[in-house]
Amino acid sequence: MTADHPHAHAEGPNYLWAALLPLTAFLALVWGINQHALPWHLTLDWAPSLGLAATFRVDGLAAQMLALITGIGALVFIYASGYLAHEPRSGRLFGMLLLFMLAMIGAVTADNLILLFLFWELTSLTSFLLVGWKHEDAQARAAARQALLITLGGGLALLGGLILLAQIAGVWTLSGIVAAGPSLHADPRLSAALVLIMLGAFTKSAQFPFHFWLPNAMSAPTPVSAYLHSATLVKLGVYLLARLDPAFNDLPLWEFSLVGIGTLTAVWAAVLALRERDLKRILAFTTLSALGTLVLLVGLPSPGAGLAVAAFMFAHAMYKAPLFMVAGNIDHATGTRNIDRLMGLRRLMPWTAAVAVLAGLSMAGLPMSFGFVAKDVIASAKAESEVLALISYATVLVNATAVAVAGVAAVRVFWGPPEAPPGHVHEVPWSMRLPPLLLVLVALEFEFLPNLADPLLVAAAQSISPGLGAMQAATTYSFEGTLTALEITLGIGLLLFLAWDRLHALLHRVHWLDRFGPAAGYEYLLHAIPRLAAWQTRHLQTGRLSHYLRQTLAALLLMGAGLAVLSSATPRFDWPALLAWPPIAWAWALACLLILTGAVSALFLRQRIAVLMASGLIGYGSAVLFLFTGAPDLAFTQFAVETVLVVIAASVLPYLPAAKALPRPGKSLDYILAVAAGVATFMLLLHLAGMPENTELAAWFAAHSLPEAHGRNVVNVIIVDFRAFDTLGEIAVLAFSLLAALPLLAGLRRQRAMSSGS
Amino acid sequence: MKSGSVLLERAAPLLYWAMLIIALAILLRGHNEPGGGFIGGLVAVAASALLAIILDPAAALRRQPLAPLRLAMAGVGLTLLSGLPAVFLGLPYLTHLWSGGWSTVLLFDLGVFCAVWGTLTGYLYPLLEADPR
């Protein structure tokens, strides 16, 4: 490294060794596929009492995803060790990348729906952390939040959809649902379940109108963009759709949604790509376009579509990840990604230029590239399913844009007029040259030796389209027709490439896209949330306890009245039982005396502390009642709670405004509310006393307390043994409430210190 | 915040220890007689409150085994731990084990006791300390 290297002063730790982890996983996968026939199963006990088992299943599609996750993962880790060599915080990034990789592996191997959801959300979370890695940059923070809100929102929909689907099918595994397949179609809830699942998949795979988070996520470091936002994470939505496709592909709702949204996304992204000047964002828009094409292909009903999905998913990862690395190399070397300022880098960065050309060939779908094979399979799949002519035209436009973008990334940047780029430009270190080069070479090899890739692709295709035979898959490689279509696409692509600047200038002036697009809608909603919060805080959270009390009582009364009207239950008063003389009359009389004294004196006392103690008397009164009616435990607790409550409330009292005396109740509304609440509670109690009591549970606890839990105090046995898990949750909430309150309490102390200091 | 009464200030620590012993007794007898970790914890809070009001919160804090937040978290940790031995024996989590008069239930209840004691004193001390009067 030369002394004039721009970053030479700060050498961070080298995490090249971290690449060994994905590499080992990749080699294990290759070894496993050679040794054991797919699919593999693994079942672990999770919560047997709930009938829940952690099931994992690896079939062809999962194996293909695993190969991408671990194989490209290894190369991305090597690349990142070079890209972040001068970054002191790079350890954190590697840790998050590893966590993301594990989450991805879990998501594509999970067969249990809950497990799938957990890993799915974990990928969203790690993506959030990785996009926002440069957290001192406001733009990166906004992009991370956007990606998180959209994918987690979709994740919520997905959870609902998965639960609904499991209830319809009666099984909690993906393989079980796919096996149940057509038998589910009659259920009226299926449409809702599928719409929810599609929402989850569309947000994850950035389909229209949720597409905008993906280009914005480009503020992540390049290794992250190459790994998450082109090769793996964004394919997860497509993966889930492809996984479920065998069960639902003959439903019109499924087919039309996937084909419609996929086509719309592909075309819209192709148009938007022309508005960008940033090389990375241009690539991101073509990724969107590719994702749209994948969703469209999943939606096509023909068996060949499965092969097309498998081949294109593979080809796209193999050319898009290297192209992102090319963009990263250029950024690293020149400090800019703006294509206006990047020309003639060929001589300065020959290795990167070679990678760009090879990946560009594949992206454009030219012969001698894996992209060509993929394009060919796609064309046959579409011919088979007789798609609408409109969709065929749309794909021509999408492919032509891909050709033009490939031209920009591979030709324009490197072969343009030899203008001197700004600053001191140098070729990047080997760790950033080798990974993309390896990827494009492997892809090239697959083109010349399709036998290497075929078994994996066919196995993956058969998991998507079970009707596809091995022979049929092999014959689908027919190069007829592809060449003429290719010529048309190339022609239009060339025109787009040549007219790029003019088209850009034209589209850039279309400002309504910025004002009314889905991204603008997101911003509007995002700003509407604090506005709504401010509005309701102004009107409901007045900070006056009397207002809160009024609102609470009014709301409770309204709800009670509403319930009474809706249930149309006539109140049942068991008058003989209610009017019967109680067994220990003097205890009832004492309790009533205490409660009445407390209530009446609370009405007339004017000192806050006196009112507080009077209300404590009411609690003591009910404790007396518990004591003599067979609940000494409850009485004990009630005495203790009442005492501590009065002590703590008394220590809060001085903070209330006008600490000395209570304001006189003036409004008649308050009287009406108070009387209504009292009467309603009284009626409710009378009604409850007349209800038949269900003593089954109480009898069970009483019978099992001593023999099974060795305790005679049934209440305590319930708390610490029968319902121990509930208690654990309750005390955890209690303890964590203190954690939340401590900053507020510290604020009080600061206030005190300031007022006493001044 | 001193009460100004010598008698009270002298008696407060004695009362505190007496109440704490009662609190522990309530905790221990809770499995068969009225009582338990929750009520015991509340009595302990009352004891601490007595000290904090008559002397000052720092004096109450000194006589507590751990500072409030730590005490509360230690309580939650104890209850969490009390369920683990069963897992090692292949039983579901939080299945309580007995050997003679001793059991993991006691550990669980002690956790509840500490969580209540720690949390409520954690609220109380700062309020008393920052008293605006």
What does this structure look like?
The complex is a heterodimer of chains A (758) and B (133). Chain A has 758 residues and is mostly helical. Among the domains of chain A are: 211 residues, no CATH class; 195 residues, no CATH class; 63 residues, no CATH class. Chain A has 32 helices and two strands. The longest helix of chain A is centred in the C-terminal third of the chain and has 34 residues. By secondary structure, chain B is mainly alpha-helical. Chain B has one domain. Helix content of chain B is 71%, strand content 3%. Chain B has six helices and two strands. Chain B has a two-stranded antiparallel ribbon with strand order 1-2. In chain B, helix 1 runs antiparallel to helix 2, helix 2 packs parallel to helix 6 and helix 4 packs antiparallel against helix 6. The mean pLDDT of chain B is 87. Chains A and B meet through helix 28, helix 31 and helix 32 of A and helix 2, helix 4 and helix 6 of B.
In short, what is this structure?
By secondary structure, chain A is mainly alpha-helical. Among the domains of chain A are: 22-182 and 192-241, no CATH class; 303-497, no CATH class; 696-758, no CATH class. Chain A contains 32 helices and 2 strands.
